[in-house]
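User: Can you predict the 3D structure for this chain?
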Amino acid sequence: MIERYTLPEMSALWTRPAIFETWLTVELAVLEVQERMGLVPAGVTADVRGKAGFDIARIDEIEAEVRHDVIAFLTNVAEHVGENSRYVHMGMTSSDLIDTALALQIQKAGALITEKLAALIETIKQRAVQHRDTVMVGRSHGIHGEPITFGLKLLNWLDELERQQKRWLDALEENRVGQISGAMGSYSNIDPAVEEQVCELLSLKPARTSTQVISRDIHAQFFMALGSLATTIEKFAVEIRALQKTDILEVEEGFAKGQKGSSAMPHKRNPVSSENLTGLARMLRSYITPALENVVLWHERDISHSSVERITFPDAFILAHYMLNRFNTVMRDLVVHEDNMRNNMNRFGGIIFSQRLLLKLIDKGMSREDAYRLVQKNAHTAWNVLGGDFRANLLADEEVRARLTEPEVETCFDVADYLRNVPAVYARFGL
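Assistant: Here is the predicted structure, written as structure tokens:
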């Protein structure tokens, strides 16, 4: 089934009220530290905290005149606070406020991504355990190869997602950095100790050095991690789409009661969620390029990055959160057609067991070249005929029977022998 996206907490973090609340949080933290250090009179922080507020309509009115969003915000806060507002933003520059607040938003929104990613990993782990022994054919180049299990396929997905989880957490940690370093990042009007204590208060790390902004390579790393995660989800979604083809039909997205697949063809049950996720992954990856281009700023700072980030950060977080939630639903409700998996595996009389026949003939003294020729001939004869039977061809081939008895041929078609080491792979995951 397709779930509506009913998780407003992510989008709420990127509304203008939430952004201004975060700005206020940073300003109050700086003020608190400065009071603690004796740089502003005692009692100022409590007074400002009690009076501070903002009105978005008033901020817009002020910004229309001053053409500067931070000044408009601070002016409106000062209108609420009164005389002690002169201590607000003392020694700071706009990017101290904006970049440190952005780091807080990244951490809050990142926690929601982390939660959704962990939930998806758990769902795939459960499905991998469930289908540990569900036999299917493995494919290379889209062509039948040898037997695997669906659970083994899902273990590969689990492994990749856990790597993506590590990349994501590393990028999130790298982005847990703030700056309160003043104009040009030289601390000319503010003590570095203020930055250290403010960042500690906000659960951030102080930037080792900054210009007038936090270096954007840090943010670029974040977008690359998100783009990589989106690509992994797309990889899984494309596999589901491929396996849901009518002539394969080994898995199928859940189809809700009352759901319709086509306005014209009532029989249709389409992999719409997986198709949507494929498209959304393209969008998330598209943000990597502007994030990398944002690294390149003039001298100590320009604002060419600013307009980009106002779009990319909210969009990337909301898209990633949505994708994780939706793909978790796909995996939770995924229908696995085990009979079709087994039937597809045994098409053409089990041609996928050709390697075992090849090795058996070599073991009986044939050269590899002669054995390959003999097995390939029987396999292709089966492949080229509707309802062809590889096993029957082998048993009727005098050259094969001169080397192998019927029981020896039959043992080559034992699927269990192909899967005897699957438990060893599961053991690597503690499963």
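The domain at 351-412 is CATH 1.10.40.30 (Ribonucleotide Reductase Protein R1; domain 1). The longest strand covers residues 143-149.
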